[in-house]
Please model this.
Amino acid sequence: MDHFLYRNGALHAEDVPVAEIAAAVGTPFYVYSTATLTRHFQLFDEALDGMDHLVCYAMKAASNQAILRTLADLGAGMDVVSGGEYARARAAGVPGDRIVFSGVGKTRAEIIQALEGGIRQFNVESEPEMAVLSEVAHGLGKVAPITIRVNPDVDARTHAKISTGKSENKFGIPISQARRVYADAAALPGIKVIGIDVHIGSQLTELEPFEMAFRKVAELTQTLRTDGHEITRLDLGGGLGIPYARSNEAPPLPADFGALIKRTVGHLGCEIEIEPGRLIAGNAGLLVSSVIYVKQGEDRQFLILDGAMNDLIRPAMYDAWHDIVAVEEPEPGHEQVAYDIVGPVCESGDTFAKGRMMPKLQAGALVAFRSAGAYGAVMSSEYNTRPLVPEVLVKDDHFAVIRPRPTFDEIISRDTIPEWL
Ligand SMILES: *Cc1c(COP(=O)(O)O)cnc(C)c1O
Model:
């Protein structure tokens, strides 16, 4: 459920007409709903009720300071994957002891940054990383709390580019080698192993792969405890999918995910962390764009938008489907037209949808991409020197620009010309 509904013939973000934001900000822009972000965070939090737990928002999904602050104020922790994200989380007021650091390629500089700034735990993904982390922490006179990310060799049955839990993926250590790696970890002076981490992929639309992974983690917990390790924390990752096409998808709910966690690892008495990103931010955001031209091709009609692949890359990168709706509510029984919906960028890949049935639209009409809140603005670029798409946050009947559109001068002045020119 989200808070983007038609009212009086116009699409609203909570109580604000989307067209009103477009008039104030210009298009394209992203708009997020505070109520939706809040609701999604709380669904996860409530799903783990009765267990000692922390919901660490995977902030790579959408990392604007205002979004982070909204979630942090509700008690969210953060899952970060870079020094930049760590700095963003801290700048938004998230204390170090609510930040977990994931990622396969943490640099020494990032490790030092997190150790000095404060960290809940590092999710270690390889033996070389473990050695460097121990050495750096020891050198600073610290002991870094860690979990080790295991790769359970489970097929998440999702898009290949966002599947992470198969043995061929770059993530984590093979679960078959876990006992030896945990034994090695116990001997290192700069780290303290406190748990196990797993994350098998993103946009999972069924629970079975999670179930297989969590059962393997439960079994490993028992084995490692028998080996003498204190396993007190399980980080079970994120990955729960969202319905991108409203008409025919119904992925499992956070409550189902929580019940699965209780059923599979609840008996172990561990503190539970989860790292949802997409399900918190995805349906909390729209990308709003204007039709520049309606162009008649030989055998198809093109809807040319002012939004492009640089603003929302998911269709080009993952063949992703986004529901695209007219901001002005179509009349009942309106005429439908099949459009190829494209952006202005000089690449055929700049295509959002082909043959999409839409109400008949004119130049100047506003359209909204649903479910664009996660992996949308964060993956945007200034390709074609198109200014980074602005972001807006709505709360009830008011809105604020939370990232302005840069001017051409601002973009150009980031470049510097060497003195020999
Ligand atoms: C990307 C990622 C997540 C979040 O995945 P979602 O599908 O957005 O929920 C969580 N944990 C790790 C380690 C990730 O890389």
